[in-house]
């Protein structure tokens, strides 16, 4: 059961109206960089 823990978890981040409009582009850039997977994909033979 431990092996299945956190599978399918989704984290939601909200840029709220209280934050300045000028920060939207910077926030989008941050999350675009976080999407990149820098780890090599394991291949099993």
How much of the sequence lies in strands comes to under 5%
Mean pLDDT: 87
Poorly predicted tracts of residues: none
What percentage of residues falls in helices of 4 or more residues? 25-40%
Question: By helix and strand content, what is the structural category?
Answer: mainly alpha
Q: Could you say which overall geometry the principal axes of the C-alpha atoms support?
A: elongated
Largest sheet: none
Rg (C-alpha, Å): 16 Å
Q: What is the tally of beta strands?
A: 0
How many individual helices? 1
> What is the H/E string?
H
Kindly, what is the distance between the CA atoms of the first and last residues, rounded to a whole number of angstroms? 26 Å
Quaternary: single chain
Give an account of the 3D structure.
The longest helix is centred in the middle third of the chain and has 12 residues, at about 25-35. This protein is mostly helical. It is built from one helix and no strands. The mean pLDDT is about 85. The chain has a domain at about 10-35. It has one helix at about 25-35.
Chain-wise SSE layout:
Layout: H1 24-35
List keywords for this structure.
45 residues; mainly alpha
Describe this structure in a few short sentences.
The chain has one helix at 24-35.
């Amino acid at each position: 059961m431990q092996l299945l823990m956190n599978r399918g978890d989704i984290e939601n981040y909200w840029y709220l109206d209280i934050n300045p409009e000028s920060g939207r582009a910077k926030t989008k850039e941050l999350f675009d960089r976080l999407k990149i997977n820098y780890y090599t994909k394991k291949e099993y033979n």
